[in-house]
């Protein structure tokens, strides 16, 4: 029975959401299998409640279904001690049931049309309508500075725009060249010779629903003032610039991000890191680029390649579009997880996808308490605790 | 290409190879594109010759400068060439002159210089059919075009909708257009030299698919069609390919939100789709055996672009491996399929070996399948 404060709940039209599979065993145990996370919930319930599960298609309100339940119980002369509404409330609280029109409460029709399947995915991850909605809104509001729009940066941009990011500061000093046809995800032969930053900006404006962009045709050099380059309104920086050297630009950006408390994603890179899983740097939580540099200086101490006889090797390194797409996808997943409430801890360490047998070679790298850049963050936190 | 280690020939260490001393005259040769290593113990004069190979001087000059002879070095040079560590200057110049130098450099970790351009030509000329041009199909097609493939057959009867834009390669301007036309436009933006045969049709039975493929005559097929289901379309393709000896990649099947990867089938060489069904049925989740699955019509499952990106990247890599048609770079998804986990960034694989009860590896099939060339 629906009473008093439950009236509002009773008016909801709930449905068993698509991201959950339901299995029923002969002993009246219901198995709810969450498809994206493989999480499972087992409930021992009455056969009548199992029958009710098939009614949850959003066509009737909880109150109407409760009445149907009572009628069905009477017709079966079934003595039922369990409350239908309690059962439904429990499933709603677990994110197994959702409102039929939940997306429309938060998004306009065009947004719902474009992102409905993605919101369903977010619902599986976040396990509640409110959290899934909040995740897409955070994506739409997030302002990203993307530095480098090349073999990996362009694929990252393409995926970010697809999933709803629309505010960008796009930094690249180069122009689109014929050879970019083999690696750049936004390549268009008609745009050869145009600045990549402008090509990227044009792409964002042609795809995003409410784009806000700044295109910057300047390099990130060692002596660049980062804030003058990208502005002070960035929420996340992505570094894919391999010139002058991604290690050097990442350390520069990492120091800036530690000072500002901004997350930094280091993705792509160069030669031996064609399908890197990328590094998410969150000041105070993960190693910063200086921590990584110190770590690898120690662990690779005995591993020193001799000077290569070819001085200019810029056209000598390999690459595959499919590896760029893999690296970009892994990077974008890290960004989604960073913004997600249930995406888990930010990984600390590195990983490489190995083309030979499609293995992932990953290893942990922890924060260095003696790091001259971010070591103090840990000490300050400990003091505060 | 004829490769010679004559005194007047000019050679270099491939630019993507790093040479690392490991002590006691031992050197690691690290292939940076594929992160693989090989190790040799070298006499000092040989090591000095190899580390000086920059292509600017002939072998005889380099050897003389380090107290070695061409006769001494030539056998080792043959080994380094076979193991893809060195290349003739003439090949380096040819690679540098192409737009696809990065793909060639990558393939150069698998193919010695003597075979490299022939392998790339096989890749370039491969006719690939993509059945189903949704999220994975569209992403796979553009990655292959970026890689240098120029011949496509795309099969899909749907039109681009707003709801496709969150995960497919289509642009806003494509909305309303047939998907095959939108894909053709995308491929032509990458290269005007790409040829696309468009089939605007949702294939609804095995006979119709057989007729289409018989007419189009692809070298490789990628299955991204999930209507009526990936299992059904894979069974149709399997039947056709087993008979014709054509390899295929199963790339669709956005399986329960985790990216499904593979499998790749080469008739007579690997397990086929029917073999995989036998094994997968045996592996069915024991905890769910004997239970009834609640029937749920018209489900709208979730999707996320980067998971599409990962599935398609491995599908494209598998097509590339099939396209070069060589034992030097064989498919990695023969006899297995994998899943990428969104939450953990991990790839897991299930082995799906050939099954004798399937009958697909019979000699009658094997004999019809052309062996890989070297």
Automatic annotation (TrEMBL), chain A:
Keywords: Nucleotidyltransferase, Transferase. Signal peptide: none annotated. Coiled coil: none annotated. GO terms for biological process: protein modification by small protein conjugation. GO terms for cellular component: cytoplasm. InterPro entries: ThiF/MoeB/HesA (IPR045886), ThiF_NAD_FAD-bd (IPR000594), Ubiquitin-activating_enz (IPR035985). One of its GO terms (molecular function) is nucleotidyltransferase activity. Residues 115-372 form the THIF-type NAD/FAD binding fold domain. It comes from the Bacteria. It holds the Pfam family ThiF. This is Molybdopterin or thiamine biosynthesis adenylyltransferase.
From TrEMBL, chain B:
One of its GO terms (biological process) is cyclic threonylcarbamoyladenosine biosynthetic process. The keyword Nucleotidyltransferase applies. One of its GO terms (molecular function) is nucleotidyltransferase activity. Keywords: Nucleotidyltransferase, Transferase. InterPro entries: ThiF/MoeB/HesA, ThiF_NAD_FAD-bd, Ubiquitin-activating_enz. Residues 120-359 form the THIF-type NAD/FAD binding fold domain. It holds the Pfam family ThiF. This is Molybdopterin or thiamine biosynthesis adenylyltransferase. It comes from Sulfitobacter delicatus. The lineage of its organism: Bacteria, Pseudomonadati, Pseudomonadota, Alphaproteobacteria, Rhodobacterales.
């Amino acid at each position: 029975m629906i009473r008093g404060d439950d009236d509002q709940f009773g008016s909801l039209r709930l449905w068993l959401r698509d991201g959950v599979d339901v299995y029923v065993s002969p002993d009246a145990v219901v198995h709810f299998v969450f498809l994206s996370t493989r999480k499972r919930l087992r409930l021992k319930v009455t056969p009548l409640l199992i029958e009710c599960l098939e009614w949850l298609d959003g066509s009737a309100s909880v109150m109407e279904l409760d009445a149907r339940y009572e009628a069905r119980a009477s017709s079966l002369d079934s003595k039922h001690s369990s409350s239908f509404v309690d059962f439904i409330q429990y499933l709603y609280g677990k994110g197994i049931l959702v409102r039929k029109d939940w997306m429309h409460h938060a998004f306009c029709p065009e947004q719902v049309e474009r992102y409905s399947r993605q919101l369903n995915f977010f619902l599986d991850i976040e396990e509640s309508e409110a959290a899934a909605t909040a995740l897409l809104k955070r994506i739409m509001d997030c302002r990203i500075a993307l530095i480098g729009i090349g073999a990996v940066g362009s694929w990252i941009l393409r995926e970010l725009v697809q999933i709803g990011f629309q505010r960008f500061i796009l930094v690249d000093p180069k122009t689109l060249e014929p050879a970019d046809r083999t690696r750049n995800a936004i390549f268009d032969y008609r745009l050869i010779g145009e600045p990549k930053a402008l090509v990227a900006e044009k792409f964002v404006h042609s795809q995003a629903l409410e784009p806000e962009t700044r295109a910057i045709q300047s390099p990130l050099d060692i002596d660049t003032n980062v804030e003058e380059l990208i502005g002070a309104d960035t929420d996340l920086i992505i570094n894919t610039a391999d010139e002058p050297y991604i290690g050097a630009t990442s350390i520069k950006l990492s120091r800036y991000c530690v000072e500002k408390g901004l997350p930094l994603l280091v993705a792509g890179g160069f030669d031996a890191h064609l399908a890197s899983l990328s590094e998410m740097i969150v000041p105070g939580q993960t190693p910063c680029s200086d921590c990584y540099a110190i770590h690898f200086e120690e662990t690779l101490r005995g591993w020193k390649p001799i000077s290569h006889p070819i001085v200019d090797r810029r056209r000598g390194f390999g690459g595959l579009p499919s590896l760029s797409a893999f690296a970009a996808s892994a990077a974008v997943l890290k960004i989604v997880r960073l913004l997600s409430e249930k995406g888990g801890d930010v990984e600390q360490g590195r990983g490489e996808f190995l083309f030979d047998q499609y293995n992932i070679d990953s290893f942990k790298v922890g924060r260095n308490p003696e790091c001259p850049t971010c070591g103090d963050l840990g000490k300050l936190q400990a003091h505060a605790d | 290409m004829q490769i010679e280690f004559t005194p007047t020939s000019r050679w270099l260490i491939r630019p993507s190879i790093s040479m690392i001393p490991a002590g006691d005259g031992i050197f690691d040769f690290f292939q940076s594109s594929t992160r693989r290593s090989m190790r040799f113990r070298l006499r000092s004069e040989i090591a000095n010759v190899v580390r000086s190979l920059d292509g600017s001087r002939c072998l005889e000059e380099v050897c003389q400068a380090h107290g070695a002879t061409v006769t001494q070095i030539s056998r080792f040079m043959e080994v380094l060439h076979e193991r893809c560590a060195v290349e003739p200057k003439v090949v380096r110049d040819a690679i540098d002159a192409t737009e696809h130098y990065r793909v060639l450099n990558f393939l150069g970790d698998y193919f010695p210089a003597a075979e490299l351009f022939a392998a790339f030509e096989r890749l370039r000329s491969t006719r690939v059919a993509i059945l189903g041009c949704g999220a994975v199909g569209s992403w796979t097609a553009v990655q292959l075009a970026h890689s240098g493939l120029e011949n496509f057959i795309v099969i899909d009867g749907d039109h681009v909708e707003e709801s496709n834009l969150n995960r497919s390669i289509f642009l806003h301007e494509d909305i309303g257009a047939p998907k095959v036309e939108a894909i053709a436009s995308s491929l032509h933006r990458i290269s005007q030299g790409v040829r696309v045969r468009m089939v605007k049709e949702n294939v609804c039975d095995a006979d119709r698919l057989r007729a289409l493929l018989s007419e189009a005559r692809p070298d490789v097929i990628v299955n991204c069609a999930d209507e009526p289901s990936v299992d059904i379309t894979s069974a149709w393709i399997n039947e056709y390919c087993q008979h014709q000896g054509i390899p295929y990649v199963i790339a669709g099947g956005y399986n329960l939100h985790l990216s499904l990867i593979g499998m790749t089938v080469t008739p007579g060489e690997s397990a086929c789709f029917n073999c995989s069904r036998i094994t997968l049925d045996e592996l069915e989740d024991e905890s769910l055996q004997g239970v009834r699955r609640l029937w749920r019509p018209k489900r709208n499952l979730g999707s996320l672009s980067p998971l599409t990106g990962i599935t398609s990247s491995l599908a494209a890599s598998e097509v590339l491996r099939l396209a070069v048609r060589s034992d030097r770079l064989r498919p990695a998804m023969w006899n297995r399929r994998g899943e990428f986990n969104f939450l953990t960034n991990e790839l897991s694989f299930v082995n799906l070996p050939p099954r004798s009860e399937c009958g697909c590896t019979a000699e009658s099939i094997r004999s019809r399948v052309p062996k890989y060339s070297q």
